[in-house]
Amino acid sequence: MPRFSLVTPVYNPPIDALRDCIASVRNQLFQDWEWCITDDCSPNPQVRRELEKAATADPRIRLHFRESNGGIVAASQDSLDLATGEFIGLLDHDDMLHPEALRRVDRRLREDG
């Protein structure tokens, strides 16, 4: 079981922002994570291609594609349903994580544990 499950609903983000988000997660120095992403029927087909490309490159990325747009709550819940980690982190589709983000959280959890 991974230590952290990042949960991300996706709906039609700017492709450059999505790529930056993906890179920021994949560049985490702490490696014990999974990323649960649900695409909420993005109309831009490039969104799906970018997500599938990322998941192919990294097996820690788990994808779900909704058949109809359900909004951020439904997409977030679908992503949460994929999660198996000890801790959940919410990440928007255009957010970026500092490379040390998960390592610092893990360190703090261990200190407080």
Task: Please provide a written account of the structure.
The chain is α/β, with parallel strands linked by helices. Helices cover 43% and strands 20% of the residues. The protein has 4 helices and 4 strands; from the N terminus they run βαβαβαβα. The chain has helices at residues 15-26, 45-57, 71-82, 101-112, and strands at residues 4-10, 33-39, 61-65, 87-90. A 4-stranded parallel beta sheet has the order 3-2-1-4, sandwiched between helices. Helix 1 (15-26) links the parallel strand 1 (4-10) and strand 2. Helix 1 runs parallel beside helix 2.
Under the CATH scheme, which class? Alpha Beta
Kindly report the average pLDDT value. Answer: 97
By CATH, the superfamily comes out as: Spore Coat Polysaccharide Biosynthesis Protein SpsA, Chain A
How many alpha or pi helices? Answer: 4
Question: Topology, please?
Answer:
Blueprint: E1 4-10, H1 15-26, E2 33-39, H2 45-57, E3 61-65, H3 71-82, E4 87-90, H4 101-112
Parallel strand pairs: 1-2, 1-4, 2-3
Helix pairs in contact: 1-2
Task: Please summarize what this structure is.
Helices cover about 45% and strands about 20% of the residues.
Key attributes of the depicted protein:
113 residues, alpha/beta, Spore Coat Polysaccharide Biosynthesis Protein SpsA, Chain A, 4-stranded parallel beta sheet, 4 strands, globular
